[in-house]
Amino acid sequence: MTGEPAIAVTGLVKRFGERTVVDHVSIEVARGEIVGFLGPNGSGKTTTIRMMCGLLTPDEGEGRVLGHDILHDQRAIKREVGYMTQRFSFYEDLTIEENLQFVAGVFDLPREAVASTLADLGLTSRKGQLAGSLSGGWKQRLALAACIMHRPKLLMLDEPTAGVDPKARREFWDEIHQRAAEGLTVLVSTHYMDEAERCHRINYISYGKLITQGTVAEVVRDAGLTTMVLEGPRIAEAQRMLRSMHGVEQVAPYGNSLHVIGRDGPAVRKAAQTAAEATQSKLLEAETSLEDVFIQLMGASQDNMQ
Amino acid sequence: MSTFFSWQRLRTIIRKESIQMRRDRITFAMMLGVPLMQLMLFGFAINNDPKDLPAALVVPVQDRYSRAMVTALELTGYYRFTHPAATAAEAEALIAAGDVSFVVTMPSDFGRRFERGEHPQILIEADATDPAVASGAINTIGTVANEALLREARTEAAMAENQATKVDVVIHRRYNPEGLTQYNIVPGLLGVILQMTMVMMTAMALTRETERGTMENLLSMPVTPIEIMLGKVLPFFVVGAVQVVVVLVAARLIFGVPFAGSIWLLLLGVFVFVMALVVLGYVFSTLARTQMQAMQLTFFYFLPSILLSGFMFPFSGMPTWARWIGETLPLTHFLRLIRGVMLKGADLAAIASPLLALTGFAIGFTLLALSRFRQTLD
Ligand SMILES: Nc1ncnc2c1ncn2[C@@H]1O[C@H](COP(=O)(O)OP(=O)(O)OP(=O)(O)O)[C@@H](O)[C@H]1O
Ligand SMILES: [Mg+2]
């Protein structure tokens, strides 16, 4: 039992009408792992997660979640998985406490569960407030608290920190890591690079296809990108020059510096050198960031689509 | 905890639905206010005993008897002869156009035959499309006519003493031969009111969750279709019960509708009817994708069920095809049941067939709802 991965799905396909929204996606997540699920808007993250927690029926593919067949044992999956939807989907016309009581009732949890969750959240004094009147960040916290209340073995979080302030985000990730250490498995979709870097492994999906997966270091290494950084007062000029130069695939300004990125290492170095000399900028080679890798991947898969 | 049904989960859903129902102030007020309003509106419109209704008199020869007749009828307060000297053709056009509610016709030899002691006839045609309009006026006419003519005859001292009821008053209720009365309407109103709120409210049950995005969360939890269905329809039994009490009390106290049969039999019928209604609403809810569509479905169903159930027009007066449609509507069977119990004092055996039909609807709709329920977001 413990040897079996928490998630093992292969070849998932989902079509909406003519469009194939998820195209043969296979994902494996070991128990106790925190896995990031990344990809541009509309790439099929939410759809994939819904298929894995039994909310959508895949058109093709099969798999097991916590050892239960995703096609036939949805009810068992629902009991053991905590799913936090992308959009707040608790009842806005119920109070915080009533929402938690509803979840507790459905999962047949003891009465104390609600009180202790309220205390953990620090919401005991505001328990009578309607959920709809909470701020965005608090709604997220409530939703998270509600979906871990029944002590699931697997958490599927769909952009749980969208619109949450940095401190709350930090606390959220601390909590996730702590629970993972206790054995909880987490699959979390996000658009934030720093969050991706906090995951043990990441999966990157684009246009419904799984493009790459592995640890952050592996993903960066596999991308095979070279990144050169120019620094100086005239980088705007350098940027214009570099745009049209051979081997340069991305040019991105960061404050006073400019990142020049491409797969062809020697060509990128040469181009950066030329531009640096022309604009009297300082030149150095840098580590490629995950974000640069993703931008590269997005561009590449768009080319694939044509 | 059982996989397919748990009281615990059902209780949880009922509790949640009841809280939401209470918080939705306007809807909640409507559920209790609308029935009262409808009852008053319909009830009084029908109970109203209108006076001074326009009438036409067709009489070839104006004599003292016809004049006495007009005076007497006008004195009752019901009739106002706007066309005291119409021809038969004119009168026909007037009543067809609705310009007059009555046409009183006296034959040309009326006076002569009356004096001779024969039984002359007066024909009164009433526009009974709205039975409430016609009933009061018609009820009084026989006595009024006789008294008037006798008085007229006596002043002339021409006739003997034994001339009571010498005139035959023939009444034709035009357009609505059965002549419904409020006794018929108020029990029917209970059916219409229940149907209105029960079906409309439950039709929103699932579409509201879908539209607010809470469906995704609900479905991601281990609740089963039957729990969701029961959890969403059962709270409406309380609302229905309140409406039943309101209407029955009003029927008795305000409209004086007699209650001939057993209250328990009536409540049994109402219970089965409400069950069929809430589940029907829930079926609509599984068919519609938005609250707007649910509303439209509900109204699509309302119109035939008001027109073809025998609420508005007598069932027996409808063509066969319309009666067949009527048979497929729960309201039709409920009307038979409630009119049977309330007005005719029917016993269980007498209402067995509508009761069975309603039970059939409830079971059928339940199966339909459960088979239609989408357990995924597909
Ligand atoms: N029920 C549906 N019917 C039709 N198309 C759908 C449906 N649900 C999703 N889609 C389409 O499928 C595609 C993938 O959607 P999905 O929500 O899975 O993307 P995502 O990766 O979660 O995007 P985001 O990062 O914006 O949340 C989108 O183009 C969306 O329009
Ligand atoms: Mg999404």
Automatic annotation (TrEMBL), chain B:
The chain crosses the membrane at residues 26-46, 185-207, 228-251, 263-285, 297-315, 348-370. InterPro entries: ABC-2_transporter_component, ABC2_TM, ABC2_TM_bact-type. Residues 147-376 form the ABC transmembrane type-2 domain. The keyword Transmembrane applies. Its main location: membrane. Keywords: Cell membrane, Membrane, Transmembrane, Transmembrane helix, Transport. It is found in: Cell membrane. It is a multi-pass membrane protein. Belongs to the ABC-2 integral membrane protein family. This is ABC transporter permease. It comes from Sedimentimonas flavescens.
